[in-house]
């Protein structure tokens, strides 16, 4: 059976969304300047707003979250340093080894013994050991956290657990970077401001194209001095976009829609409940990602593809990412196709 593109239901990622007419109009009307030479006013407005939301003194727009994380790691690490991150973190598994290849750091994963995507303070403390030993020993200098944790099904780290991990890291003298690509989701799920989830970190990245609907763009935030250094590093990596205000305008519209992420969480819960009723083993989603176990992963992926349901495998499971372009009716249609096989 050949399915038309219009009949496909796309759960591959919350990056597949398309800018709507409101966002496109904002992009078309954006006030712009040369952001490399003397600044772009719309980009500057976005950076100021994002910094305030994230509770940081300054922020820098980047074309992608991978670039934002790479800039942070490149500035925080010296070549050969060891850094710690929860197992399955995006900086370890999904950024093509740039943490080692370009930033020069060696990743060491932390087990999730406090819950999905979260190590306990004791596990972190044991992993740190002696951060700085003899000159010939490995130096541990950085902790990278991820909130929400993508490969754990959009799992959330609440403020109290975040604070405990930060206390251990800071006591050992570690710098802390937070990969907050989907931090907006965590804030909505916990009903707290985004800044409540960044307390104590030295830098944080957040994405405008995951869930919020912008076609491109992330932000890196930290101290004014850190962002000044980050601006130079962004230029080195080819991220010095000229009239970036056209893209920043979309990101500003996206920030107006943070509260609407709650609708995707409701649809994800509806999808998970429906799959469970059909006998699928699924996580109870905390945000917008549903993970389904599959004894025959490739067979399950082939089945869904034949039904016009587009998904991706993650950590040995089927990943459904619910986003703003999928309605409650799309969720019901998805469950209908799985239930009937057509």
Task: Outline the structure in words.
Strand 11 (312-314) and strand 12 (317-321) form a beta hairpin. With 342 residues, this protein is an alpha/beta fold. It is globular. It contains 13 helices and 12 strands. Strands 2-8-7-6-5-3-4 form a 7-stranded mixed beta sheet, with helices on both faces. It has a 3-stranded antiparallel beta sheet with strand order 9-12-11, covered by helices on one side. Helix 1 (21-28) runs antiparallel to helix 10, helix 2 (41-54) packs parallel to helix 10 (245-255) and helix 11 (261-277) packs parallel to helix 13.
Keywords for this entry:
single chain, 342 residues, alpha/beta, 7-stranded mixed beta sheet, 3-stranded antiparallel beta sheet, globular
Report how far apart the termini are: 10 Å
Q: Tell me the number of helical segments per DSSP (H or I, 4 or more residues long).
A: 13
Shape: globular
Extract low-pLDDT stretches: none
Spatial extent as radius of gyration: 20 Å
Could you tell me the number of beta strands? 12
Strand content: 15-25%
Sheet with the most strands? 7 strands, mixed
If you average the pLDDT, what whole number results?
96
SSE pattern, N- to C-terminal: EHHEHEHHEHEHEHEEHHHEHEEEH
Strand order of the largest sheet: 2-8-7-6-5-3-4
Structural class: alpha/beta
Work out the helicity level: 25-40%
Oligomer category: single chain
């Amino acid at each position: 059976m050949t399915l038309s593109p219009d009949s496909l239901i796309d759960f591959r990622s919350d990056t597949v969304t398309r800018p709507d007419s409101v966002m496109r109009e904002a992009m078309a009307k954006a006030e712009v300047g040369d952001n490399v030479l003397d600044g772009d006013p719309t980009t500057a407005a976005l950076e100021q707003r994002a910094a305030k939301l994230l509770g940081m003194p300054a922020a820098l727009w980047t074309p992608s979250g991978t670039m934002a994380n790479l800039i942070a790691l490149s500035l925080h690490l010296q070549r050969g340093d060891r850094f710690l991150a929860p197992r399955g973190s995006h900086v370890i598994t999904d950024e093509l080894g740039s943490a080692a290849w370009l930033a020069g750091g060696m990743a060491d994963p932390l087990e999730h013994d406090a819950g999905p995507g979260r190590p306990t303070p004791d596990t972190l403390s044991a992993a740190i050991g002696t951060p700085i030993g003899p000159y010939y020993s490995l130096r541990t200098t950085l902790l990278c956290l991820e909130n929400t944790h993508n490969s754990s099904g959009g799992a959330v780290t609440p403020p109290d657990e975040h604070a405990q991990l930060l206390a251990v890291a800071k006591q050992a003298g570690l710098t802390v970077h937070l990969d907050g690509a989907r931090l907006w989701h965590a804030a909505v799920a916990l009903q707290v401001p985004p800044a409540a989830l960044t307390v104590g970190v030295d830098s944080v990245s957040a994405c405008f194209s995951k869930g919020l609907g912008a076609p491109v763009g992330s932000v890196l935030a930290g101290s004014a001095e850190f962002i000044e250094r980050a601006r130079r590093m962004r230029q080195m990596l080819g991220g010095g976009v000229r009239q970036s205000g056209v893209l920043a305008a979309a990101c500003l519209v996206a920030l107006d829609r943070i509260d609407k992420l709650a609708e995707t969480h409701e649809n994800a819960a509806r999808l998970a409940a429906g799959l469970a009723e059909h006998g699928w083993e699924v996580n109870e989603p905390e945000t917008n990602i549903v993970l389904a176990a599959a004894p025959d992963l490739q067979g399950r992926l082939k089945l869904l593809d034949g039904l016009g349901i587009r998904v991706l495998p993650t950590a040995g499971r089927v990943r459904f990412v619910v986003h703003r372009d999928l309605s409650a009716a799309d969720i019901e249609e998805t469950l209908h196709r799985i239930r009937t096989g057509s």
